[in-house]
């Protein structure tokens, strides 16, 4: 019988598709212990035990003991409501709640840190200028006694206006570059500069 958690073939359109089963730490420890015990039992079930098998048994004994201790510890944790609550919070933070959790941890910024490694040197300078300008702008407004809600709203408008101004500047630069490229393509371009 096929395990429903196994991935199905792409051409298999019949039947429901099951999400893979996420094992709990208790299940992982139990599987670990069972695998080690199965290895030990397979060696002991042999009719004749060789020296190599005895060496494997000696190596397996402490591994089984530690696995049993970890399994017992996870069993105690599984019965503890506080620990289960904490583990549930950790799972939420690791999966679907990651963005919300990270946003709540930010004290000042509304957005994550900017990835500076992908920026060109000019873009880094522009980012630093913007950051410093924004910090000074925030300070001026706070010194005037403006509420944080009003500052946040005004900052959103400030960012929009900055982006519009930069778009206009990029468009103007593109037009200048196009005009210069058109001049360079003219057959008389460079005639005066080449004569010496």
Give a structural overview.
It is a single chain. By secondary structure, the protein is mainly α. It folds into two domains: 25-103; 108-185, no CATH class. The chain is built from seven helices and no strands. It has helices at residues 25-44, 51-79, 81-94, 98-105, 121-144, 148-185, 191-194. Helix 1 (25-44) packs antiparallel against helix 2. Residues 1-24, 164-196 are annotated as: Disordered.
Main pleated sheet: none
Uncertain runs are: none
The SSE order reads HHHHHHH
How helix-rich are the residues, as a percent range? Answer: 55-70%
Strand residue content = under 5%
Nearest-integer average pLDDT: 85
Query: What would the principal axes of the Cα set say about the shape?
Result: elongated
Region (Disordered): 1-24, 164-196
Protein topology:
Blueprint: H1 25-44, H2 51-79, H3 81-94, H4 98-105, H5 121-144, H6 148-185, H7 191-194
Summarize the structure.
With 196 residues, the protein is mainly α. It has helices spanning 25-44, 51-79, 81-94, 98-105, 121-144, 148-185, 191-194. Residues 1-24, 164-196 are annotated as: Disordered.
């Amino acid at each position: 019988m096929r395990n429903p958690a196994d991935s199905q073939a792409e051409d298999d359109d019949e039947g429901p598709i099951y999400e893979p089963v996420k094992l709990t730490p208790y299940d992982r420890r139990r599987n670990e212990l069972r695998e080690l015990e199965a290895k030990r039992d397979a060696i002991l079930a042999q009719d004749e035990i060789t020296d190599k098998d005895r060496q494997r048994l000696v190596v397996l004994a402490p591994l089984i003991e530690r696995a049993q201790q970890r399994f017992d510890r996870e069993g105690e944790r599984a019965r503890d409501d506080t620990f289960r609550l904490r583990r549930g919070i950790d799972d939420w933070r690791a999966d679907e709640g990651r963005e919300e959790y990270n946003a709540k941890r930010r004290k000042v910024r509304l957005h994550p840190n900017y990835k500076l490694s992908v920026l060109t040197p000019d873009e880094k300078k522009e980012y630093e200028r913007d950051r410093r300008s924004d910090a000074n702008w925030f300070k001026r407004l706070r010194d005037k006694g403006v509420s944080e809600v009003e500052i946040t709203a005004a900052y959103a408008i400030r960012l929009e206006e900055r982006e519009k101004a930069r778009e206009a500047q990029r468009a103007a630069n593109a037009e200048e570059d196009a005009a210069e490229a058109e001049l360079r393509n003219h057959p008389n371009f460079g005639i005066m500069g080449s004569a010496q």
